[in-house]
From TrEMBL:
This is histidine kinase. SMART domains: HAMP, HATPase_c, HisKA. It is an enzyme of class 2 (transferase). Keywords: Kinase, Membrane, Phosphoprotein, Transferase, Transmembrane, Transmembrane helix, Two-component regulatory system. It comes from Rhodanobacter denitrificans. Pfam families: HAMP (PF00672), HATPase_c (PF02518), HisKA (PF00512). The lineage of its organism: Bacteria, Pseudomonadati, Pseudomonadota, Gammaproteobacteria, Lysobacterales. GO terms for molecular function: phosphorelay sensor kinase activity.
Length: 422
């Protein structure tokens, strides 16, 4: 599946948002600046006229008429124009008021020599510069912003392509990596930027993985041949010696130990090789359980030896499992073999319970502190002759193939339940 170009879109979106933000901020500053300049012009005109009026009033004792026709002097706010009077009554501290029919007022309060207030009013509706051209200013800013945004997107697309293309190529290669087909070189490995550094690091890691895979394949191949061949020789020699009638009881016991150890080692090798496979085995069809269990019981029977142990098998011929027969054979060989090895006397029962195969036996009591970790590597009960790897290997194999495995230890013994369906 081709990955979505999320990084490319994010870079473009970041450029677009940044450009819109900067353009909007400067447009706001531009509008505020032109309005502020216009207002400062009218305020300066009012201040200049106010200085003249105050000076004339001080000299003559009365207020003269303003020098400009758009200015008016009022000694009573009731004399204001109607639209200004209403707004001034609502906000007496304000100095700028919009009026009706395009009028606009600037107001400055004066104080004469007699202490009575007066107001200098400038009606500047026909003198406004910004308001008549406001739409053109907004249009100019909008077009300018659109052009800048387009240029920013083009620049962002160029930068995003140069940045994301090597990453996209690298992601495609990494997504298609297979353990048996690891490339020697990756794209974008020659750059001196962060992408090149990342690529070279991945190349080094892939080289190590390639070495590990080759080493594992060599080990699997060598173990399959170098271990199974002598084990087959030991088993065959043991079978021939067992047929000899001249062996005394002590020699036969030693021979049984050799045959049992060889069988356990062969079973462990088979399990480890199953775990070493890259892909889990697929079931060719439903696996019939009864013939498989009977075969496992026969194979593991030497573990019982001379102990008084009875095997109670209660599985119907029609019972099947969805898991591969080879995997079930390994799992059941370990579980049934453990049940045989750890039962001193009594019954090992194999039956069905709740859609699972149950293997129950009475064995040695296990400490509570040991039960929770018994499935971990190198954990074993006291008196066990093994290395504590059996259940850990079985658990890993079940996890690998999606087989539900539950093992319960209590005062009555141990019960292992193997799920029959995926």
């Amino acid at each position: 599946m081709k990955p979505r170009r999320r990084l490319h879109r994010r870079l473009l979106a970041a450029f677009a948002v940044l450009t819109l933000g900067v353009a909007g901020l400067f447009a706001f500053y531009a509008i505020a600046f032109v309005y502020m300049v216009e207002d400062r012009f009218f305020v300066a005109q009012l201040d200049d006229e106010a200085a003249y009026l105050i000076q004339a009033q001080a000299a003559t004792g009365g207020w003269p008429a303003p020098r400009s026709p758009h200015l008016a002097l009022h000694t009573d706010s009731a004399a204001f124009p109607a639209d200004l009077r209403a707004s001034f009554a609502a906000e007496p501290r304000r100095r700028e008021f919009p009026g009706h029919d395009g009028r606009h007022y600037h107001l400055l309060q004066l104080s004469g020599v007699d202490g009575r207030p007066a107001w200098l009013v400038a009606e500047v509706g026909d003198r406004l510069v910004v308001r008549p051209m406001r739409q053109r200013i907004f249009a100019l800013l909008a077009w300018s912003g659109a052009i800048v945004l387009a240029l920013a997107l083009l620049l962002g697309a160029w930068i995003a392509r140069r940045t994301s293309r090597p990453l996209a190529e690298l992601a495609d290669v990494v997504a298609g990596l297979q353990p048996g087909e690891l490339p020697e070189r990756l794209p974008a490995a020659r750059g001196d930027d962060e992408i090149g550094t990342l690529t070279r690091g991945l190349e080094a890691l892939i080289g190590r993985v390639r070495t590990f895979v080759a080493r594992e394949q060599e080990f699997t191949r060598d173990a399959s041949h170098e271990l199974r061949t002598p084990l087959t020789v030991i088993r065959s020699a043991g079978e021939r010696l067992a047929a000899e009638a001249r062996l005394d009881d002590a020699q036969r016991r030693h021979l049984d130990h050799i045959r049992l150890s060889a069988a356990q080692l062969e079973q462990t090798v088979t399990t480890l090789l199953a775990l070493a496979r890259e892909q889990p085995l697929e079931a060719a069809g439903p696996t019939r359980l009864l013939p498989l269990i009977e075969r496992v019981i026969v194979e593991q029977a030497p573990l019982i030896g001379e102990r008084p142990i009875r095997v109670d098998l209660d599985v119907t011929p029609a019972c099947t499992s969805a898991h591969p027969a080879a995997v079930l054979h390994i799992v059941l060989s370990n579980l049934i073999g453990n049940a045989f090895a750890h039962t001193e006397r009594g019954t090992v029962r194999i039956d069905l319970a709740g859609g699972a195969l149950r293997i129950a036996n009475r064995g040695h009591a296990i400490d509570d502190t040991l039960r929770a970790t018994l499935h971990q590597p190198f954990t074993k009960r006291e008196g066990s002759a093994g290395f504590g790897l059996g259940l850990a290997i079985v658990q890993r194999l079940c996890d690998r193939h999606g087989i539900a495995l539950a093992i319960v230890h209590d005062a009555d013994g141990s019960r292992a339940c193997v799920g029959l369906h995926a």
